[in-house]
Amino acid sequence: MDIYGLVSGPLVWVALVVFGLGLIYQARQFLADTKIQEVVRPPASVLGKVELPKTLSLADISNSFFGVHPVMAVVTTIFHVFLIMLPIFLLGHNVLLEESTGFSLFVFPEMVADVLTLLVILGGVFFLLRRVLVRRVRAITSLYDFIILAIVVAPFITGYMATQQWLDYDTILILHILAGELMLMAIPFTKLKHGLLLFLYRYLMNYEHCLGSGTRVWSYNQAK
Amino acid sequence: MSDQEKRAVDRAEISKMLEKKAPEMKRILNYCVHCSICAESCFLYMSHDGDPQYMPSYKVINSLGKLYKKNGNVDHEFLEGIKGMVWNNCVLCHRCYCPIGIDIPRMIDFTRSICRSQDVFPKLDEGESWL
Question: How far is A178 from chain B (nearest CA, A)?
């Protein structure tokens, strides 16, 4: 088996298994480290009398993330949405998917995919510049943050280079596949796991900014 | 040098406290993406012209984060150093907002508990200012 056969065959499955099992492990650990605790809420007779505003006011928006950091909010939303959607709905990936499984998904037109790839790469450049130039971000930035950013953006840069056939196509393609596999395997075991855990923390944990039921609290029974 | 400064740190006790809450604290420290979005939700950060020292994540990373990195092997001077960070630079108002769901005040609160266990806290009755 040649290198291309290896990275586009068995290694893809290894990456997907590590990614899937890793996320399951993280979710299980979260459930093991937390427990359900009954939350004391005001009785229905009191809650029924509370009238919550039905529409968003201008103050709500200006105090929200989009109001305080409009540029960051727009860039991070575009970056995160297409970071996830692009690889799933890309023509090239779906051709391979159809070859190996017999089915494929909706795909972005190639021109649109190219533009979206550039947007993700520009988002990465924005985050990089922010880390270097903005004082408060620089104050908490470590080498690890740059490595994580590189792991995330590398598949998109190499993917765009492969599409445009820049440099040696075969080499870039292999690098692209390896970068993608590295990113998939890194997600459950690095800060990238926030893609999964943010939903668990923000919707299930009982704290000030909880968005959901907030019925879970940390359990310290595992202490040795 | 006062008696408090001479006091030796009970590292075993600090390690025990860190270990007890490790499932939550260690995980959360490794989970923070260092985005700094929490900054503007802190009124102390806003009222100090955006000084990063008042940023909620900065306070946690440089107090509890270092305690975990050193596995509790710290001296009295270190605890005195982070005292200002977790008392003077934070009032535990619980308004700090983390987009990925980190409960920052719990971590500051825990760091205060560790300091307090070693008799490190603002001595208000000795004229030390809290704010």
Answer: 24
- Please state the ipTM of this predicted complex: 0.88
* Residue A177: Cβ-neighbour burial (10 angstroms; 0-12, 13-18, 19+): buried
pLDDT value at position A44?
73
Chain A environment of B43 (Cβ under 8 Å): none
- Contact with chain A for residue B69, Cβ under 8 A: no
Residue-wise pLDDT tens digits, B50-65: 999 999 999 999 999 9
The whole-angstrom distance between A200's CA and the closest CA on chain B is 9
Residue from A131, A208, A219, A221 to probe the interface with B (highest B Cβ count within 10 Å): A208
Residue A124 vs residues A82, A104, A149: alpha-carbon distances, Å = 12, 29, 7
State pLDDT tens for residues B79-93.
999 999 999 999 999
State whether residue B22 sits within 8 Å of chain A by CB: yes
The predicted pLDDT at position A222 comes to: 45
**pLDDT bracket for residue A221 (50, 70, 90):** very low
Q: Please, where are the H alpha helices in A1-57? A: 3-8, 10-33, 44-47
**What is the pTM (predicted TM-score) of this model?**
0.88
Helix, strand, coil percentages for chain A (3-state, nearest 5): 70, 5, 25
Of B58, B94, B105, the CB nearest to A140: B58
Neighbours of A140 (CB within 10 A): 23
